Amino acid sequence: MPELSPNQIFTLIQTHSLGVGIVIAWLGIVLLTAELTYRWTTWGAEVSRKIVHIGTGNIILLAWWFQIPAILGIIASIFFSGLTLLSYRYPVLPSISGIGRQSWGTFFYAVSIGVLLAWFWPTAPAYPALGILTMAYGDGLAAMIGQRWGRHPYQVGGIKKSWEGSLTMALVTMVIAGLVLGLQGNLGGVSVIFIALVLGVFATGLETFSRWGIDNLTVPLGTAGLAWGLSQLLVHQTF
Description:
2 strands, single chain, two-stranded antiparallel sheet, Dgk1-like, mainly alpha, membrane, 3% strand
């Protein structure tokens, strides 16, 4: 990726002002909703954090739709990574950090977006979208369903999970992978189904064997990378 001067970056922002403005507006809505939920409801920081977790993931679809350059996303990733680190020490955004347990998940989330944009954008935007949406919806819904309706717990190396949450993670990942890879249009139907099934199991394993929120890094990078690798192997197949 070529180095850009501040003037060139400002020109990019002006050129893509509509898309950038919509992304900023969406992030503002998500953060405001999370803060209001945290401050004015009894649901607590865990729910408000999941609002941020799931809601923020949708920015990748906006960035894809408006073809926002990778450098702008990477700059935003660096900014929000710093902001989340600051929020762990100071009450800048308690809705994303005050969850009562040790977790660097929000920081890893911001980092993973920047890494995926630098890795794949703009030549293969489907893979950052797949990784980020898997993290946002798969991991986010798995945690919510596992905590609310998890009736069959299990434990791996001291990490407590539920079968309901893990099944949610697998199914949501498969659906997202199937939709994104299907829309990409360069793979046969059987190949898409095969990759989706593999990613569902793989992402669930990454989410299961994670501590301190590191699955917010391993899940998006792992699923995007594996999806890309399998796609390269199967892209010339006719099935």
